[in-house]
From TrEMBL:
Enzymatic reactions: tRNA(Cys) + L-cysteine + ATP = L-cysteinyl-tRNA(Cys) + AMP + diphosphate
GO molecular function: cysteine-tRNA ligase activity
Binding-site residues for ATP, renumbered to this chain: 290
This protein's encoding gene: cysS
UniProt-recorded name of the protein: Cysteine--tRNA ligase
InterPro entries assigned: Cys-tRNA-ligase (IPR015803), Cys-tRNA/MSH_ligase (IPR024909), Rossmann-like_a/b/a_fold (IPR014729), tRNA-synt_1_cat_dom (IPR032678), tRNAsynth_Ia_anticodon-bd (IPR009080)
Residue ranges occupied by any tRNA synthetases class I catalytic domain in the UniProt entry: 19-334
Cofactor note: Binds 1 zinc ion per subunit.
Keyword ATP-binding recorded: yes
Assembly and binders: Monomer.
Main location: cytoplasm
């Protein structure tokens, strides 16, 4: 099942490339983490479901995975270019709270979502403010050849590296008008790698540096943590597709400078060999974003009666490079699909362990392997899993082993989920699950006794409480909310 070469889409070349590890047998992956000034929205979490599927696929292929996800607690401005304020400082001022408390609160909220979505813990959560000394050292090492100082900070001169912005394409294709200019910049795309605290101001987070008191630039953070924890070049760098435009081209420019080459060959000098980007989760009104104020949190989905893994299922149903539009109907459909699978898996739970290589499952395992090796094609992999589940009159232990093997990659936690886990009641519902089950037993008895008046009355009562009775559902779900 693990022979097909793993092909991944590299944003740098805009081509599918075979994954060939830098260090034989290993896979080193860095994912840009959340900026912890607010709750993550489900769009942000799509980025981590994607990175998790990538990591699980690498593990399944037998690589020894080291995954790092950072926590950005300083430096990310309200504009990805150099305009605006620090997102963390702004929120701390609005809430009149310590920035450290804000970071702690939202980091914990993010971790809760990570857990609920069955995202595996990375080898390390690297917190940006733990690496300030290393950032200063990194900046010092490139400052002479690649940077210049303005009153507002130390700026990176993008003309000092070759092929700046190749990753983005848009920068050269559409011009650089998107990037707000700061007076004195040599090139519009130049960016701050150290921002000085303006005279007379005090920031909650600031440190001394050779360029004055201030804070590191957001792009510098990821370059430094990637280099420190994984070493250049590492294998794969991930992030949302917005990062392909500014954040990652800037990281790459710094990495080229740090490697001392500034050469054309970004393939060896961009810090990572493969850069991968997940597309957006969008709503009808556009990209979901924290900065816009209104957004969907995973907790809201749970409060409305959806299991968090229904959202993971929704993500898996789309290829990571396609835009995914969120709708409650779509989430409902994903939830139903998950329930059907869980129902079928439940029958396998007691089976004696078997081996997955039973010949009846060979076509599905092959289809699954080919799909995942084809740039993580989870929609097709899910179908392969369902086809394996549907195989009739076969050893249950072998089937269980096949499902376990596939689910180790998809991460739905199918063998740990039960029918009861999926019967979440929306917050505010006035009836408990025990009461629903009790009413349904009463109704079954009434129907057995051909007392249809009582049975209909019970159905209507339940319906008034928001519970829909589903007679004859082939999967045996007798009710839904
Ligand atoms: N709507 C979305 N769909 C998928 N991924 C997203 C979406 N919005 C942001 N991301 C990704 O989520 C990850 C975390 O982003 P981060 O916490 O820095 O968000 P942000 O830029 O502060 O918030 P926002 O862009 O929502 O205002 C990044 O990899 C980013 O590219
Ligand atoms: Zn980053």
């Amino acid at each position: 099942m693990t022979e097909t070469p793993l092909m991944l889409f590299n944003s740098l070349t805009r081509e599918l490339e075979e994954f060939v590890p830098v260090h034989p047998g290993e896979a080193r992956v860095y994912s840009c983490g959340p900026t912890v000034y607010n709750y993550p929205h489900i769009g942000n979490m799509r980025a981590y479901v994607f990175a998790d599927v990538l990591g699980r696929t690498l593990s399944w292929k037998g690589y020894d995975l080291t995954h790092v996800i950072n926590i950005t607690d300083v430096g990310h401005l309200t504009d990805d270019g150099d305009a605006g304020e620090d997102k963390m400082e702004k929120m701390a001022a609005e809430k009149a709270q310590s920035i450290w408390d804000i970071a702690k609160h939202y980091t914990e909220a993010y971790w809760a979502d990570v857990k609920a979505l069955n995202i595996r813990e990375p080898a390390k959560w690297s917190v940006a403010t733990d690496y300030i000394d290393e950032m200063i050292d990194f900046a010092k090492s490139i400052a002479d050849r690649h940077c210049y100082e303005l009153d507002s900070g130390l700026y990176f001169d993008v003309s000092t590296v070759e092929d700046y912005g190749r990753l983005a394409r848009a920068v050269t294709e559409e011009g650089e008008g998107r990037i707000e200019t700061v007076e004195g910049k040599r090139n519009p795309a130049d960016f701050a790698i150290w921002r000085k605290t303006p005279p007379g101001e005090r920031r909650q987070m600031e440190w001394d540096s050779p360029w004055g008191r201030g804070a590191p630039g957001w792009h510098l953070e990821c370059s430094v943590m990637g280099e420190k924890l994984l070493g250049f070049p590492f294998d794969i760098h991930t992030g949302g597709i917005d990062h392909r435009e500014i954040h990652h081209p800037n990281e790459i420019a710094q990495n080229q400078a740090f490697c001392g080459c500034g050469g054309l060959s970004q393939a060896t000098n961009s810090g990572a060999k493969i850069w991968m980007h997940n597309n957006f989760l969008v709503e009808r009104s556009g990209k979901m974003s924290k900065s816009s104020g209104e957004f969907l949190r995973l907790q809201l989905l749970i409060d409305r009666g959806y299991h968090p893994l229904a959202y993971r299922m929704m993500c898996l149903q789309a290829h990571y490079r396609s835009e995914l539009e969120f709708s409650w109907e779509g989430l409902g459909a994903a939830m139903t699909r998950l329930k059907r699978i869980v129902m079928a898996v439940e029958r396998l739970k007691d089976a004696a362990p078997g081996a997955p290589d039973h010949p009846r499952f060979a076509p599905m395992r092959e289809k699954f392997a080919a799909a995942m090796a084809d740039d993580l094609n989870t929609p097709i992999a899910l179908v392969a899993l369902e086809e394996a589940l549907a195989v009739k009159k076969v050893d249950a232990g072998a089937k269980r082993a096949v499902i376990e093997e596939m689910d180790a990659v998809l991460g739905l936690g199918l063998l740990d989920l039960s029918r009861d886990d999926l019967r979440l009641r929306p917050q505010g519902a006035t009836i408990t699950e025990e009461e629903i089950e009790a009413e349904l037993i009463r109704r079954k008895e009434a129907r057995a006794a051909k007392d249809f008046t009582t049975s209909d009355a019970i159905r209507d009562e339940l319906s008034a409480k928001g519970v829909e009775v589903m007679d004859g559902d082939p999967l045996g779900w007798d009710w839904k909310l």
